[in-house]
Amino acid sequence: MAESDEEDITDLPPSAKLVYKVLEYKGPLTQKGIVEESMLSARTVRYALERLEEVDVVSEDVYFADARQNLYELTTDDAPDQQDQAVSD
Length: 89
What we know:
Blueprint: H1 3-10, H2 14-26, E1 29-30, H3 31-38, H4 42-54, E2 58-62, E3 70-74, H5 82-88
Antiparallel strand pairs: 1-3, 2-3
Helix pairs in contact: 2-4
GO molecular function: NAD+ kinase activity
Keywords: Kinase, Transferase
Organism: Halorhabdus tiamatea SARL4B
């Protein structure tokens, strides 16, 4: 995580920080997936995602398996290198 992103996230509510960490550890997820992983309510997750999108650390894309849902992921600057995670696992 870049230093400027850390400063942006520091000012966010705890729910947004938790959602950020869930995406950091689990990778791209739908809102439903974030709700399941974080154990936050759907409304809280929606609010957290809105806040994270405001500071440009999360991006939203179409979830092709079910176009009614969106897929959320960390922006490329914030996403950990997947190969580094695979080596450490």
